[in-house]
C-alpha cells in the first residue's frame, strides 16, 4: 500500500516537472540583454586585513525579561520619551541541531524604554509556534531560510523518507519565526519576516498576542517586512503568489482603521498583479519604493528557482539553495499607480544590481526618482552563512574581501514617454541629477544611475540599513539619510549622508558595532535633521558594556549613552514608539 502511494506521488511529481520545464527555458531576449555602461564602476570589493573576530555577536544569548536599569552617561533629551524596539536572531541552536544562516536564528525582541532621561532595557524570545516546537523537541523541527529541519528520529524509516515530500509552500511547513522587523497595521504592531505569517505583539510586555496568516485574507504566500504608509495610516506592501496558475508579484493595500476592535488585517486587498519576466525564476526582493502616487517594484537578477525550491526537501536542501545571482540578466523597474492599481506601460531597465533596502522615492517633473542602496554583486546571501560570520584571522578577511559593497544610487523613471521620442534621447528633464533614462530602438528605456556619494564612502565600506525622517519626508524630495558603514561583515559605524552635496558625517568607536540608526524628530519640528539618532551599539569584548547611543542628528555628535551589562546579538530592524 505504502509503495503504491509513493509511486503515485513520484508520477505526479514527474508530470509537474514536465509541465514546468517549458516555463523554465522560456526565452527572454530583452531581459537577458546586457548593455554595458563604461562610466559606471564594477562591484567594489574590500581589501581589508586583520579584521577582529565578531563571533560573540552571532551566538545564542539569554533573554532579559525583567527590566534592567541602564547606566546613563551624558545627556538624554527630556523630550525623548518612548521605546526603541528592535528585533533579530538570538538563538542559533536547539540541542545538537545548529542553524546554518544568520537569518535563521530565533527571534529575540529588545526594548529600550526612555522616560525623562532614564533608560531601562528588557528582552524576550518570541514565543512563536516554531520556537515552542523546537524547544519541546530540543531540536530544529521547522526549516528556516538556510537550514533544513531533519526528520523526526522517532519516526520509522518510511515516515522519515515521506516527510521529505512536504512542499515548502504548505502552511504547516512554513516558519512563523518572524525575526526581521516591527510593522504597523491599523494601529497594531506585528513582527514579520517574509513568509505568510506575522505575530501581533504587545509593545509594552513584548508578549505575542496573536498569529496572523496573510493567506487567510488575500491570495498571497508571503509579504515583505518593509511596508509603506500613507499619512492617514493606509499601508502598502508587496507579496508573492504561486500556485497551479503560476507565479505573480502582488501589490497589497491594507485600510488604515478597524471596523471591529478584534480584527487584524481584515479588508486587505491585492490591487495589482505583476507577472515575472522569467516565469520559472521570479526575483527575490526584500523591499520596494513608494511615492505619493506610485509603487515602484524592482525585479532584480537575484532569482528564485521555483523548481529547486519546490523540490528542496526532496533534495535535502534548504530554501536558500533555490536563490541564485544571475548577472547575465538586467534589472527591471515596474511602476504601479497605487490609487487605481494600474501597471504603467513603461519598460525600464538597468544593468544588473541587487537592492535590499530602498532609501526614498519621490516625484518631480513627470518622473519618479528612486534612491537605493545597491550592490553589483548579488552573492551577499551566501556570505551571511554563520560559519562565515564566525571566522577569524585570514579566513575572515577573505570572506569580507569577497563580498560586494552597498552604495547609494539614484535612478530616474520618466512616466510620460511619447511614442515619437527619438531613439537615444535622454528623457530625464531633471537638471539636478546626472541619472539618465535613454529610449532604445525597441521602445524600452535604459536607466543609468547617479552615485549619491564620493570616494570617502568607499573607505567606509559602503552603507546599508538606510533610514530617513519617514513621517515628514517619505515620498518627498529630501536631503539626508542615515545608515551603517560596513568596514566589517556587520555595521561598524553610523553615517549621515547629504544626497545634495554628497558629503558624510561619521560616528565610529573602535571595537563597537552599531545597529540600524533610527531617526526620532524633536516634537513639532519640520526640520529634516531636527532630532536625534538612536542606535544599539554592541561589542564582542566581554569586558565592555553594550549601550544605547544618542546622537544629535544635525552635527552627528554624541549626546549620551545608556550602558547595559547584557550580551546582545547583532540584529536587523526596529522602530521608535513615542509615549
From TrEMBL:
Cited Pfam families: RPE65 (PF03055)
Places the protein is found: Mitochondrion
Catalytic activity: 5-cis-lycopene + O2 = 5-cis-10'-apo-lycopenal + (3E,5E)-6,10-dimethylundeca-3,5,9-trien-2-one; (3R,6R)-3-hydroxy-10'-apo-alpha-carotenal + O2 = (3R,6R)-hydroxy-alpha-ionone + 4,9-dimethyldodeca-2,4,6,8,10-pentaenedial; 13-cis-lycopene + O2 = 13-cis-10'-apo-lycopenal + (3E,5E)-6,10-dimethylundeca-3,5,9-trien-2-one; (3R)-3-hydroxy-10'-apo-beta-carotenal + O2 = 4,9-dimethyldodeca-2,4,6,8,10-pentaenedial + (3R)-hydroxy-beta-ionone
Annotated signal peptide: 1-17
Cofactor binding: number and manner: Binds 1 Fe(2+) ion per subunit.
Names of required cofactors: Fe(2+)
Gene Ontology molecular function: beta,beta-carotene-9',10'-cleaving oxygenase activity; metal ion binding
Annotated binding of Fe cation, by residue: 226, 286, 357, 573
GO biological process, alphabetically ordered: lipid metabolic process
InterPro entries: Carotenoid_Oase
UniProt key word Metal-binding: yes
Record's GO cellular component terms: mitochondrion
Primary location: mitochondrion
EC number(s) recorded for this UniProt protein: 1.13.11.71
Keywords, ordered alphabetically: Dioxygenase, Iron, Lipid metabolism, Metal-binding, Mitochondrion, Oxidoreductase, Signal
PANTHER family: BETA-CAROTENE DIOXYGENASE, CAROTENOID-CLEAVING DIOXYGENASE, MITOCHONDRIAL
Primary role: Broad specificity mitochondrial dioxygenase that mediates the asymmetric oxidative cleavage of carotenoids. Cleaves carotenes (pure hydrocarbon carotenoids) such as all-trans-beta-carotene and lycopene as well as xanthophylls (oxygenated carotenoids) such as zeaxanthin, lutein and beta-cryptoxanthin at both the 9,10 and the 9',10' carbon-carbon double bond. Through its function in carotenoids metabolism regulates oxidative stress and the production of important signaling molecules.
Family label: Belongs to the carotenoid oxygenase family.
The name this protein goes by in its record: Carotenoid-cleaving dioxygenase, mitochondrial
Amino acid at each position: 500500500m505504502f509503495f503504491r502511494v509513493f509511486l503515485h506521488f513520484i508520477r505526479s511529481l514527474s508530470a509537474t516537472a514536465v509541465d514546468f520545464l517549458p516555463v523554465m527555458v522560456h526565452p527572454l531576449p530583452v531581459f537577458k540583454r546586457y548593455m554595458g555602461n563604461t562610466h559606471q564602476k564594477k562591484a567594489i570589493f574590500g581589501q581589508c586585513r586583520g579584521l577582529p573576530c565578531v563571533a560573540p555577536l552571532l551566538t545564542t544569548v539569554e533573554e532579559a525579561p525583567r527590566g534592567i536599569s541602564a547606566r546613563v552617561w551624558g545627556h538624554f533629551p527630556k523630550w525623548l520619551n518612548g521605546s526603541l524596539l528592535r528585533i533579530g536572531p538570538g538563538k542559533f541552536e536547539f540541542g545538537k541541531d545548529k542553524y546554518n544562516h544568520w537569518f535563521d536564528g530565533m527571534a529575540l525582541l529588545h526594548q529600550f524604554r526612555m522616560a525623562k532621561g532614564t533608560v531601562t532595557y528588557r528582552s524576550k524570545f518570541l514565543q512563536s509556534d516554531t520556537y515552542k516546537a523546537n524547544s519541546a523537541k530540543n531540536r530544529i523541527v521547522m526549516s528556516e531560510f538556510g537550514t533544513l529541519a531533519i526528520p523526526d528520529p522517532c519516526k520509522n524509516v518510511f515516515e522519515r523518507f515521506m516527510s521529505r515530500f512536504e512542499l515548502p509552500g504548505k502552511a504547516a511547513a512554513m516558519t512563523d519565526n518572524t525575526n526581521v522587523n516591527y510593522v504597523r497595521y491599523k494601529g497594531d504592531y506585528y513582527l514579520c519576516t517574509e513568509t505568510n505569517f506575522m505575530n501581533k505583539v504587545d509593545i509594552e510586555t513584548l508578549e505575542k498576542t496573536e498569529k496572523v496568516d496573510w493567506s487567510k485574507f488575500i491570495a498571497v504566500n508571503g509579504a515583505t517586512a518593509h511596508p509603506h504608509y500613507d499619512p492617514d495610516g493606509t499601508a502598502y506592501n508587496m507579496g508573492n503568489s504561486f500556485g497551479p496558475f503560476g507565479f505573480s508579484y502582488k501589490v497589497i493595500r491594507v485600510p488604515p482603521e478597524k471596523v471591529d476592535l478584534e480584527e487584524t488585517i481584515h479588508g486587505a486587498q491585492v490591487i495589482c498583479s505583476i507577472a515575472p519576466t522569467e516565469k520559472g525564476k521570479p526575483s527575490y526582493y526584500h523591499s520596494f519604493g513608494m511615492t505619493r502616487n506610485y509603487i515602484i517594484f524592482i525585479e532584480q537578477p537575484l532569482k528564485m528557482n521555483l523548481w529547486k525550491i519546490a523540490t528542496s526537501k526532496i533534495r535535502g536542501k534548504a530554501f536558500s539553495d533555490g536563490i541564485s545571482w544571475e548577472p547575465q540578466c538586467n534589472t527591471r523597474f515596474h511602476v504601479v499607480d497605487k490609487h487605481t492599481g494600474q501597471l504603467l506601460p513603461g519598460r525600464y531597465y538597468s544593468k544588473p544590481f541587487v537592492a535590499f533596502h530602498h532609501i526614498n522615492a519621490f516625484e518631480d517633473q513627470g518622473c519618479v526618482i528612486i534612491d537605493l542602496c545597491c550592490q553589483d554583486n548579488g552573492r551577499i546571501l551566501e556570505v551571511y552563512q554563520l560559519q562565515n560570520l564566525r571566522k577569524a584571522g585570514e579566513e575572515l578577511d577573505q570572506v569580507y574581501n569577497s563580498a560586494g559593497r552597498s552604495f547609494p544610487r539614484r535612478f530616474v523613471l520618466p512616466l510620460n514617454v511619447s511614442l515619437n521620442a527619438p531613439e537615444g534621447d535622454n528623457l530625464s528633464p531633471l537638471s539636478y541629477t546626472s541619472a539618465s533614462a535613454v529610449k532604445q530602438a525597441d521602445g524600452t528605456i535604459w536607466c543609468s544611475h547617479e552615485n549619491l556619494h564620493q570616494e570617502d564612502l568607499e573607505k567606509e565600506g559602503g552603507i546599508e540599513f538606510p533610514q530617513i525622517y519617514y513621517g515628514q519626508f517619505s515620498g518627498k524630495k529630501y536631503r539626508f539619510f542615515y545608515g551603517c558603514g560596513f568596514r566589517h561583515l556587520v555595521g561598524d559605524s553610523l553615517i549621515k549622508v547629504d544626497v545634495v552635496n554628497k558629503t558624510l558625517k561619521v560616528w565610529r568607536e573602535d571595537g563597537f558595532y552599531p545597529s540600524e540608526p533610527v531617526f526620532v524628530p524633536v516634537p513639532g519640528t519640520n526640520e529634516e535633521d531636527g532630532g536625534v539618532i538612536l542606535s544599539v551599539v554592541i561589542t564582542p569584548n566581554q569586558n565592555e558594556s553594550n549601550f544605547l547611543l544618542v546622537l544629535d542628528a544635525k552635527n552627528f555628535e554624541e549626546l549620551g549613552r545608556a550602558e547595559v551589562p547584557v550580551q546582545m546579538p547583532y540584529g536587523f530592524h526596529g522602530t521608535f514608539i513615542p509615549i
